[in-house]
Amino acid sequence: VSADPPARVRIGVIGAGTMGRLYVDAFGQDRLAELVAVCDLDEVRARGLQSDFGVPSVFSSPEAMLDQGDLDAVVVATPDFLHREPVIAALEHGCHVLCEKPLSMDPDDGRAIVDAVEKSGKKLMVNFGNRHRPQIRRVKQLIDRGQLGSVQHVYVRLNEKRTKRAALAWAARSSPLWFLGSHALDVARWLVGSEISDVYARGYFEPGLKGAPPETVTSTVTFESGTCCTVEASWNLPPAFPRDVDFEIEVLGSEGAVKVDCSSQGLMTFAERAMDESWDWPYADFRGDETGWWHTSCYYFTDCILSGRSPTPDEKDGLAITEALTAMEVSLMEGRGA
Ligand SMILES: NC(=O)c1ccc[n+]([C@@H]2O[C@H](COP(=O)([O-])OP(=O)(O)OC[C@H]3O[C@@H](n4cnc5c(N)ncnc54)[C@H](O)[C@@H]3O)[C@@H](O)[C@H]2O)c1
Questions:
Q1: Deepest of 36, 139, 178, 233, by most Cβ within 10 A of its Cβ?
Q2: Residue from 13, 14, 18 to probe ligand 1 pocket by mutation (most atoms less than 8 Å from CB)
Q3: Any atom of ligand 1 within 6 Å of the Cβ of 62
Q4: Is 315 helix (H, G, I), strand (E, B) or coil?
């Protein structure tokens, strides 16, 4: 039996919705991957990806796809609250996992995933892909080199348009905190490089909509290092806002400060139809490989799997974010008087 690693990571995608489509497209172009299957409980969606991208096999359940037994890794792109079962099933079938954010919406689910990763000996990465945005990587480098001195305050705002929320079938079961705040908090925690020790959150709830998630959340996060952080997330930007996201970061250190605007990535395109460039805009690098922050995050995963490295953020990073967001949600509801 050869112990050689596979030449390409054989990948299956669980969930053929908005993100599933992007993964099928991205891994279909990854020279380190072979996209072999896609599954969705709604088989019509999976078949749609098969015909659009020529995916070899389609299944209507994760179990059916995993039982086929020829996958090295699985992408889990199911709704926020439905990550636990497919992730654990994939690990138990001997697959590495690339899991969409957040790792889970329940710390118990997160802990079960951490245990399953350990038992399986496989690798799990949470796709907090913003860690691969060039501007954010540069800020991380400035901090790690000590060029900003000691980091005193970090501000992260990630807002999206309400049209995006309206298109999300399960929005009532998520919130700006989980859907967007998870990204913002992961960026803050990664930049600061310290564990979260304390959180406080408040939000705006639409009057009269009992039980509905907040429209907007603002929170204060303190790290063990003493760094304070403000995290804001809203999914209520008006449709006329000229970008898909309003994503800004500021870092104040004892020796320097930085401001980052990730909203447009410095590129504006104009045509008959508005062309949004705030999301990834992949371009071919000199090798002909697709490049762009989100694609790079995906390709970093397959690179780690093939080279035997452990990708980050891993399941423990994911659990730290889930635990902090859960505490923020408690604080939010206290503030509402619930
Ligand atoms: N990284 C980003 O910037 C980003 C952006 C949007 C969404 N997301 C995340 O991606 C995930 C998916 O979001 P989406 O917008 O693609 O949702 P979606 O609703 O468009 O797609 C989810 C799909 O999963 C399927 N599904 C549900 N349970 C399943 C199961 N057990 N087995 C197989 N299929 C199942 C549904 O039928 C649906 O087709 C979420 O966790 C979300 O937070 C990330």
A1: 233
A2: 18
A3: yes
A4: helix
Token pair 């290092």: residue: 225
The residue whose CA is least distant from atom 33 of ligand 1 is 40
Neighbours of 211 (CB within 10 A): 7
* pLDDT tens track for 147-188: 999 999 999 999 999 998 999 999 999 999 999 999 999 999
Query: 17, exposed or middle or buried, with CB in 10 Å at 0-12, 13-18, 19+?
Result: middle
* Helix 315-336 and helix 107-120, axial crossing angle in degrees, nearest 10: 170
Q: Give the contacts of 289 (CB within 8 A, at least 6 positions apart).
A: 31, 299
Are the C-beta atoms of residues 14 and 74 closer than 8 Å to each other? yes
Between the CA of 17 and the centroid of ligand 1 the distance, in Å, is 6
Closest atom, ligand 1, to C-alpha of 80: 41
Contact indicator for 84, 113 with CB cutoff of 8 Å: yes
